Structure formats: C-alpha cells, structure tokens
Amino acid sequence: MLEGNRVSRISVRGFAVASATAVTAVGSVVGVASGSTAQTTDDAEAVANDTTLLADIPVGQQAQVQTASLTAQADAQAIAADATARKDAEETARKKAAEDAIAKQKQAEKAEQERKAKEEAETKAQAASSLGSTPAQSSYSIAEIQAMAKAVVASDQWTCFSNIVNHESSWNYKAVNPSSGAYGLFQALPGSKMSSAGSDWQTNPATQIKWGLNYMESRYGSPCEAWSFWQANNWY
Question: What pLDDT, on a 0 to 100 scale, did the predictor assign at position 24?
Fold first, then answer.
C-alpha cells in the first residue's frame, strides 16, 4: 500500500496482479451489461503473467514500485550472502580443527618415536660400554656372537650391520683372508687395528663388534650408510 512518498515492499508482479484484477472487474461489469461472460480471477492471474502492467500504475508511483522491488531483491541477496558466508566460515573452521588435530597427533607420534629412539640409544650405549669387559671364552657360536651384536646395534641398523658381517666373514670371528691377511668379523686390515677396542681382539668377538660398530659409525655415519657403500664398491 502506498502512503505519501513511502511504499511497502511489494513486487511488481504482485502489483500487476492487483491491477489486472481491478481491470478485469471493471470489464466484468461492462460485460454483464452487454450480455458477455465475466472473466474469473484465474484469468486475471494469466493476464498478469503474460502482460506487463507497470504502465497501468500511475507514472509518479512507478519508480517507488521498482525501488521497493529492487530493495526486496537486495535484501534477499544479502540474506543469501550471509548464509553462504556463515557456511564457508563453518567449513573453514572445521578444516582448521581437523588439520590442527592431525598436526598434534603427528607431533605426539614424533615425540614418542624420539623418546623410544633415545631410550634404545642409551641402552645400546650401556651395552657397548660393557662389551669390553665381556669375559673371553674358548669359543663362540654364531648365535652367541649375533646376540652380542644385537645388544649394541640399533634395531633399524641391524639388517645392514648383519649384511656386512655376512659378506665379510660369515660371522667367523677368526676368519683370515689368505691373500691380504684381513682378520675377524669385519676383515680389518690389518687386524691389529682392532686393538684400539681391546687387546683381546684376536679371540674375543665382543671386542671386534665394539671396534666394527665404531668404525661404521665414525667413517660412514651408520651401519646402513656403510652397507650402501659396500653394495656400490664391494668393500667398505
């Protein structure tokens, strides 16, 4: 309804339907007087759908009706935009929360791995320090020698360490290369190098293991780095 210069939010189509209804009503009166059949309200709706009736609105009020329609459309678009923005914000927050949770889990897992690695390293270090004091026996089985080595070699380095010993001496701590004179589990050349780990290097595999592990770590960084070099050169 129009009131002075203000107009309620009415769509052009709604105004058109009202105008069409009024026009149809006048036509009905004329038709009755002349013997014609009156149109129904549905006919008015059809007319409003098929015909632009803005011209039927007084010229001074057309701009108000158009402004009201545009305002209603702008309001609807603003509401839709707000809803989209809220949905996007919620989705962003959900993704951020999920990413944070994954990051925290990875940090926790990394911390746990570091803790275990530190504990293992400390255990291996203690075992390595005790190798030098291992009482010598008259002989050692391969299983006994491997058990000594496993006590000091990190679990993730064991396969590499074992591969080197397998290729060098087949775990024979008294192995001698007839050509070069290389000696022991690691085929040290000369064998007397191992005296830095103990004077019983010729008869005690524990002393040889201590020397061999230190050699791999000091020269290559780790048994696995030493094994990589060995594979490329067939020596280390």
Answer: 42
